[in-house]
Specification:
Oligomer: single chain
Function: This protein catalyzes the committed step to the synthesis of the acidic phospholipids.
CATH architecture: Up-down Bundle
Order of helices and strands: HEEHHHHHH
InterPro entries: CDP-alcohol_PTase-I (IPR050324), CDP-OH_P_trans (IPR000462), CDP-OH_PTrfase_TM_dom (IPR043130), CDP_ALCOHOL_P_TRANSF_CS (IPR048254), Phosphatidylglycerol_P_synth (IPR004570)
Strand order of the largest sheet: 1-2
Shape: globular
Keywords: Cell membrane, Lipid biosynthesis, Lipid metabolism, Membrane, Phospholipid biosynthesis, Phospholipid metabolism, Transferase, Transmembrane, Transmembrane helix
Number of domains: 1
Main location: membrane
Organism: Radiobacillus deserti
Distance between the termini: 32 Å
Number of helices: 7
Largest sheet: 2 strands, antiparallel
Number of strands: 2
Radius of gyration: 18 Å
Strand content: under 5%
CATH topology: Four Helix Bundle (Hemerythrin (Met), subunit A)
Length: about 190
Amino acid sequence: MNIPNRITLSRIFMIPIFIIILSVPFDWGTIDIGNEVLPVADFVAAFIFIIASTTDWIDGYYARKHNLVTNLGKFLDPLADKLLVSAALILLVEMGQASAWIVIIIISREFAVTGLRQIAAGEGTILAAGQMGKLKTWIQIIAISVLLLHNFPFSYTTIPFGTIALYAALVITVVSGVDYFVKNWHVMRDSK
């Protein structure tokens, strides 16, 4: 297994740690930020989420630079993104930081794209993520990071940046999903 795929696996292994820190009621105190009081556990979880999300860029960059792009990487990388983002969004609903209907639409799109990839894989084709899908992932990561940090650094203002970013993520998620299906419609059309 090459280095980019190992980096991707490390992202997958960070997900349970992230989930535990947000799910178990650790009482590590609080941090005052702007007009908010941020539990230290939320800060630690956000830090882990940001580090895990950064590995998405690192593994892709390293794989392209050293010509180490593999079919396993094309499969694992979007899977790791979906697992991390889905876990974070579900936990944000539980925390009251995100609306369930937004999360349902975002995760539904991810299931639909994964289904299309499985159909393609059954036909011997690997569908890599497109540029719009990558943009979608980064907008989701920004929205989730700000929401996990209780709107920091925008907590000093009245701008609900995390919520605005989440709506932007919703829009680009839907648009990129439609774009992905349009570009790869031949996979469904030609499927046996």
